[in-house]
Design a protein that fits this description.
The chain contains 2 helices and 3 strands, in the order ααβββ. The protein is of the alpha+beta class.
Length: 116
């Protein structure tokens, strides 16, 4: 079962707070930091928050349930659920490590990591 919107919000806020804490820990004092350095810190924090939020939402989507009996692209037979597998994906918001259902056709020796 997936998380409620309030639970998702809590996880997302923690992700944003961690990125902000990291940014604050890396910044120089106001009289020593340049605009370019500020921009780099902010862009890195934005990337980290985006990747974290993407991961949270993709995991939530995957938790909604496994795809029921996808057909093997090779033979058309039903593929069998083999559990959750991790995969690193690149999205418009950056890279994210996601866990989703993985299926396998023993006849064709083909695996499937359905989109989500």
């Amino acid at each position: 079962m997936g998380l409620t919107d309030e639970e998702l919000k809590t996880r997302m806020m923690a992700e944003a707070e961690a990125a902000i804490d990291k940014l604050l820990g890396q910044k120089k004092p106001a009289e020593q930091i340049t605009l370019t350095e500020i921009e780099r810190l902010v862009l890195k924090a934005r990337q980290e928050v985006g990747e974290g939020l993407t991961t949270i939402l993709v995991e939530q989507s995957a938790a909604a349930g496994q795809v029921p009996g996808p057909a093997c692209a090779e033979c058309g037979r039903e593929m069998h659920y083999k559990g959750l597998k991790s995969k690193r994906v690149v999205s418009e918001t950056g890279e994210a490590e996601v866990k989703r259902a993985y299926y396998y056709c023993a006849d064709c020796r083909v695996g499937l990591f359905p989109p989500g």
